[in-house]
Amino acid sequence: MKAAIFLCICVYTFNGYSQYNDIKNKIWRVNSIITISESNDTTHLFQKDSLNNLDQYKISLRFTTDSTYEGSNFLNQQINGTWTKINQDTIVIENDTSKIVNISGQNVLLIHPYDYYELNNVVKQGIVVTSLIVTETQIESLKSSVWQDPTGWSCQCIPSYMDNVTIKSGHKITLPSESAEYCNRLLLEPGANCEVLSKLLISNTINVGQ
């Protein structure tokens, strides 16, 4: 299921041109993922207020121009590609199809079909309901914590390679061993500490004590 979750963000249907413009140059992150089976059984795969599945906090997407997008998948790996505006109601990314059932300047709700197996390997079709929210690219620490704890950041997410991160004075952020994390810029305020026991990849610059 994880491999399909990000790819489901692929064809959006909008009610108007202004809504289409609303999605560009914003960081969209997963807020919740719910599956609904043919029998209407509901399973919450991921909820923003739960730490049970940290991988989904790393998924992000940004439409950078009228034809390109970038983002990160659940492994926090950089992804990018092209998308096409078919008409004022539909845009297409890759080959999968998702339909927008609600959109505003800060929220997107979409549905995506998926196949699952019941007893005797009978294939049934359900839907995945994914909620996306806009988060800022300027992220600050809220407390001392490990990097992978979304409650330690102002975005309530895990920073991705697109984000500019500030560790506030008096906070210590630790990257545990056997992990690799990313950000665009890193600023350590006076008295801030970033303990890297594994690997932190910074796309742009690092500033200390500013």
Describe the structure in brief.
The protein has 210 residues and is mainly β.
How are the elements arranged and paired?
Elements: H1 2-7, E1 11-13, H2 17-22, E2 27-36, E3 42-47, E4 60-63, E5 68-72, E6 78-87, E7 90-93, E8 99-103, E9 107-117, E10 123-135, E11 138-140, E12 145-146, E13 164-167, E14 172-175, E15 180-183, E16 185-188, E17 193-196, E18 199-202, E19 206-208
Parallel strand pairs: 11-13, 12-14, 13-16, 14-17, 15-18, 16-19
Antiparallel strand pairs: 1-7, 2-3, 2-4, 2-10, 4-5, 5-6, 6-7, 8-9, 9-10
Describe what this molecule looks like in 3D.
By secondary structure, this protein is mainly beta. The protein folds into 2 domains: 2-135, Lipocalin; 138-208, no CATH class. Helix content is 6%, strand content 49%. The protein has 2 helices and 19 strands. It has helices at 2-7, 17-22; strands at residues 11-13, 27-36, 42-47, 60-63, 68-72, 78-87, 90-93, 99-103, 107-117, 123-135, 138-140, 145-146, 164-167, 172-175, 180-183, 185-188, 193-196, 199-202, 206-208. Strands 1, 2, 3, 4, 5, 6, 7, 8, 9 and 10 form a 10-stranded antiparallel sheet that branches. A hairpin with a 5-residue loop joins strand 5 and strand 6 (78-87).
Give average pLDDT, whole number: 77
CATH class of the largest domain: Mainly Beta
The stretches of 5 or more residues where confidence is low (pLDDT under 50) are: 1-12
DSSP strand (E) fraction?
Answer: over 45%
Give the helix tally: 2
Q: How would the global form be characterised?
A: globular
Between the first and last Cα atoms, what is the distance in angstroms?
43 Å
Rg: 18 Å
Please give the CATH architecture of the largest domain.
Beta Barrel
Class per helix and strand makeup:
mainly beta
Report the major sheet.
10 strands, antiparallel
Oligomer: single chain
The arrangement of helices and strands along the chain is HEHEEEEEEEEEEEEEEEEEE
Helix content: under 10%
Which topology of the largest domain does CATH recognise? Lipocalin
User: Got a strand count?
Assistant: 19
